[in-house]
Amino acid sequence: xxxxxxxxxxxxxxxxxxxxxxxxxxxxxxxxxxxxYHDRYFPDVDREEFPCLSYTRDLEDWHDFIRRTPEExxxxxxxxxKECEILELRILEDLAKQGKPIxxxxxxxxxxLKEIADHDHVLVMLADPQITVRQFFERPDRxxxxxxxxxxxxxxxxKAMENYRQGLTLINSQEDYDRxxxxxxxxILRDENxxxxxxxxxxxxxxxxxxxxxxxxxxxxxxxxxxxxxxACPDYLEGKCPSCRDTEWKEDDxxxxxxxxxxxxxxxCGFCDGFPCKEMEAFYNESDSHIxxxxxxxxxxxxxxxxxx
Length: 309
Hints:
- This protein folds into two domains: 202 residues, 3-Layer(aba) Sandwich (Rossmann fold), CATH 3.40.50; 80 residues, no CATH class.
- The protein has a five-stranded parallel sheet, sandwiched between helices.
- The chain is of the alpha/beta class.
- 48% of the residues lie in helices and 7% in strands.
- Helix 1 crosses helix 10, helix 4 crosses helix 8 and helix 6 packs antiparallel against helix 8.
- The two termini are 35 Å apart.
């Protein structure tokens, strides 16, 4: 499973992930997978397969939710993250078939993201981990205010609040912060003096989207690894090739450019240090449409081999 047309943002609370995901999806006509986008599947999840996700669905008294010990809360959050990853991958596999860019505020682990996405398609956004602990109930969203009301209904609200904040402290630890900070992916730290527009430019640069026009994004996502425009490819139009951008290829059927690009974790042949290699030179020389593919690679990657061409 590999998602060449997906852009993932991971990180902790109050770092700006939700805002950036929404802005990117709107600007580049992409599919928005905002925080907890998998919630709509919760009513149908199996209790045995997803015990943590189904916990709140099947909870009879929500006061039990806020009465758990900090350790129990942390264990549940960790379990939810693992189960969300399973659900997210299933959802993304279907969304990828639409051929549009996907922008994801994700629970998928760093380890899995390294296997399923290009390095430059993953961004870490971080804020001081104590911000979540201090400001958790300051946001006016319904879920947080519901929990706040439950805490206020407890016999000792002050003790109940302290218990819940201890749980928040555990799930927003410095250790988890450092793990994300040193994940190897690009990182953007929260800066109160930076505007939303300035942050968006940093995110676009990290994803390699800066300089690309909004109207070009969806079109480029339908360009094959080799540079052929699927909408103008005879093999694609005649049904001989389902498009490497829309298909999870079986290993026996996968073509050389797709295999090579995925092994090197690059989005197009044009991004390879050896472009154009001897194999691709022969391919580009086969027809005028393949020459167009070569020129497309040059345009996307900003490189042009005048000697070969």
